[in-house]
Amino acid sequence: MADHAPVAVATHEPLLSYLDDATGERTDLTAQQLGAWAARSAGLLRDGCGLRPGDRVAVLLPPHWRTAAVLIGAWSVGLSVSFRPRALAGLPVLEPGADLPYDAVFVTPERLDDWLEDVPEGTHRYLVGTGPGPLSSVPPGWLDWSTEVLRHPEIAPDLGVLRPTDPASPDGTSYGEWGAVAREYATQLDLRAGDRLLVDAAEHEQPLKWLLAPLAAGASVVLCANLDRSRLDAHVTAEQATRVL
């Protein structure tokens, strides 16, 4: 790819774009729009669920703009977030031996119905669909995130002071440590302010790669679900992507 002069992402340009090659769905969110959804998520967790800094949240969601809103919202009110890709990937479970239930659990309907998935118990339980609209049905004991989150304003609730030493995940990794790891990974990817990173969502489920590192570098993100590899070059051109992951 040609060299370029990094510039900050303009406020009117998408910070996060989500594409699905299987369905044709597309969602573009500016920083302000993503922040509004994250604020709604923060309100749901803090005011709707009554959670407070240090409470534990399990997020079993694929790369998606809704996942970004859930994660940013949870971290913004000081919650300790566990994230695990699919058990099929052969990766470890959330926290072996951790006290259950979690204070809140977020999962897709597909993972809830998959007998290979070890979905943890949660005091507050939300299904998060990856389609454009609300879910057609929700089993007893669960709530549809896309409906519940709209009950909260697009302005973040009043926040306490988050310290870099506060735990951002139940294993004790702090906000400051996660920030340092994100910046280091962004350096490994040679991400810079103004870059546009195109990500194969199926290959990179960890939010460190598709969310934290790009944001730490000041880059925008294009998440491609069900990526048709024959269309990769076309996506790169259309999205003006400067990096591919």
Task: Explain what the structure shows.
29% of the residues lie in helices and 18% in strands. It is an alpha/beta fold and 245 residues long. A five-stranded mixed sheet has the order 2-1-9-8-10, sandwiched between helices. A five-stranded parallel sheet has the order 4-3-5-6-7. The radius of gyration is 17 Å and the shape is globular. The model is unreliable at 1-8 and 85-94 (pLDDT under 50).
For the structure shown, list the relevant keywords.
245 residues, alpha/beta, 7 helices, disordered N terminus
Write the H/E string, N to C. EEHEHEEHEEHHEHEHE
Ends apart, CA distance between termini: 14 Å
- Report the helical percentage: 25-40%
The major β-sheet equals: 5 strands, mixed
Sheet/helix structural class: alpha/beta
- What integer value in Å does the Rg equal? 17 Å
Q: Give the strand order, joined by hyphens, for the main sheet.
A: 2-1-9-8-10
Overall geometric form: globular
What is the strand tally? 10
Unreliable spans are: 1-8, 85-94
- Indicate the proportion of strand residues: 15-25%
> How many H/I helices?
7
